[in-house]
Amino acid sequence: MATDSSARDARTGTAVPEGPTADNEVLLDDHRGGHPVVPYRAMWALLLLGWVASYADRTLTGPIVAWMIQNKAGFIGDSANPAALGGLVGSMFFLGYMLTQYPGGRLGDRYGHREMIILSLVWAGLLTAVSGIAAGLVFFVAARVLTGLGEGVFYSNDRTLIINHTPPEKRTLGLGVVITGLSIGLTVGIIFTPILADWGQSMGMGKNGWQLPFFVFAALSIVVAAAIYVFFRGKLGGAMHMGPPLGQLIKFAVPTAVVIVLLFLAAEKLHWKEWVTAVVAGLIAAVYIGVIVRGVQRSGRGPVLLNRNIWLVYIAYIAILYNLWFFSFWSVQIVKEAAHSSLVAAGLTAAFNAGAGILGFPAGGWLADRAIRTGGSRKTLALVCTAVYSVLAALFGWSISGDNTPSLLLLGLLLFTSGLFFNALQPIVQGMTGDMVPAAERGAAFGMLNLVSEIGAVASPVVSGIVHDATGSWAPGVFVAVGIMVVSFFLYLMVDEAPARHEDPIPA
Description:
mainly alpha; 508 residues
């Protein structure tokens, strides 16, 4: 794992990365004539595309599992408990994704956030293609775990780049606009995965039609990585040095992947119940988190990254990731079963939830920036969004409970309206987090935020799959997700919001 850089810029106090890169990103925006040097709107657009590609890659698994179940295809379709097994595969992916959050942020702080963005996209593209040629369950799990480990470094470096290179009064808006790529990627993944799989089947791939979406989305990631590389090189700091951060990422990712795959192999060999495997995965995550927390404390950065307020945010954000991946992973199957619809119709309906982020993310960012300018509070907005989402999600759960057979229109409406508030919440909380730490620690702070909160993403697919298989309904899983969200409301309530840090970048 990367160690702290001791070099500091005399003017701003921000860390100057040591090693082969000269990319001191915080200092690039010297504001000539009142305007940032970096064309930040173009940067927003390209990072948005990065989110689209990244989330299309990771969203694949849920719809592919649903396609395999429907077509009784592959290693999922042949299982006696396909929902639980499919959820377990998703949880293995997110365990890998989770464990590189903090290391990815620290590597970005040291070697450059641009480098980590490019490495993440190229890595994910290559491993997504490898996932498409998987001949068996274990090979597939290994490929998805490695994909998650590479994708895990994107978030913390993307969030840091936006804050460092966006005018202070538009930072939260920038966070919201860029992360709309998450919703677009989710929408693309949910809608086009079953369509592409059907195409693959009709093109002669038969029950291996599920492989085609992996190849298509892998190509998308590589193309987007190339476009971002050209922009970064020309407009954001010049040449990049990929070797050192790649070596550090491999040193962390490969042993971690081995641990996760060995866990899966042990579960297969010993015929563990899926919930037992999920518990062991949680223990592995807890050990990793403990080691990282201990390292932060020993480095003397505990008061910055591990104080009471920021811990409340870290833990509360678990609810966001749990709900995000409950609906992202299972929404197609939920709608299909509840409304007795086709897989394609269910995918189009479920896409309303993901698509709501196209409006919700930038709206949340704009409202948060406006609140700061007018002397208001982002915390209040976070509480309102959390409460309204919880009510609407509970209504969705009620609509699919018992003998109810809701219409696709009703389900789409509830998914869309709840999604607006849910997605608006995320840039609001991310903006709060960015202002809780100095500029030089933002990569680490966002990495720690996602490291802890990804507990929700790891648990969500497998827990909800097990609950469904035990009860025969998706409604209990929805109510569990809502209950977790309600707990987060009270955690946000206890946060003392930090004042907005508008002192960096410093005008000339």
